[in-house]
Structures are given as C-alpha cells and as structure tokens.
Amino acid sequence: MRLSMKDGKADYAEFTEMVDCYCVAECPKKIAIPDLFADMNAKQQHQDWNSDWYYMVHTQNAGKASDCIKCGKCEKVCPQHLNIWKLLETVAKEFEKKE
Ligand code: SF4
Predict the structure, then answer these.
(1) 56: how many CB neighbours lie within 10 A of its CB?
(2) Which residue of 22, 24, 68 sits with most ligand 1 atoms within 8 Å of its CB, as the best mutation to test the pocket?
(3) Whole-angstrom Cα distance, residue 23 to residue 14?
(4) pTM, whole model, 2 decimals?
(5) For the chain, which residues make up each domain, given as ranges?
(6) For 1-22, what is each residue's pLDDT tens digit?
(7) How far is the CA of 43 from the centre of ligand 1 (A)?
(8) Contact 31, 64 (CB under 8 A)
C-alpha cells in the first residue's frame, strides 16, 4: 500500500494502515513517526480533537515533528517509500502552531 495524494495533499487516512514500521528505530530524534501520523489522521479525517492531547502524549518523552533534522534515515527503511520528513512538516504545522 502506498501513500496517495488527494488534491496535492497527503491522504492521512492511509497512515492508519501502517504496520511493521522500522523508521522509529532509525530516527536520531526518536520521533514516534507512525503515532504522529495516526494523530494527524484522527484530526483530519475524523475531526477527533482529542488528537491534540494524543500528540502531546506521543511527544512527551520523544521527539516532536518539528525536531526532525531531515536526515532521511527513516525513509531508507520505509516500505511505503513515504517522504516522511516532508509529511512531518505538515504534522508540525497542525499540532505545534502558536496560539
Ligand atoms: S528524517 Fe526526521 S524523522 Fe526521519 S530519521 Fe531523520 S530526524 Fe527522524
């Protein structure tokens, strides 16, 4: 299963199907990549506003989406060939926007 794009935007609904992810083990910033994408999916696809709380939980003892240094190590092991660092930029904009 590959990530698709709709109207030029990533279809975050497909992130719920991510399994067997090795990307987190490779990440020097210990970003919980699949969890953050699932949070994004919950917010965008299901209007689940609890996802802000879950994003806080998933980044409490791990890296935030904005901590990504774009090293690409996660993308080398991603079976779906996702452009992870680019997608994390979108996640950071959604969950780390200033009030
Ligand atoms: S590109 Fe970002 S998310 Fe991927 S391994 Fe590097 S720091 Fe982690």
Answers:
(1) 12
(2) 68
(3) 17
(4) 0.81
(5) 5-95
(6) 344 545 545 666 555 555 567 8
(7) 22
(8) yes
88 and 67 Cβ atoms separated by less than 8 Å: no
Amino acid at 22: Y
The encoded tokens of residue 15 equal: 């992130």
DSSP class of residue 61 equals S
Nearest atom (ligand 1) to Cα of 26: 5
Where do we find the tokens 């975050």? 12
* Ligand 1 close to Cβ of residue 72 (< 6 A): yes
DSSP 1: -
3-class SS of residue 31:
strand
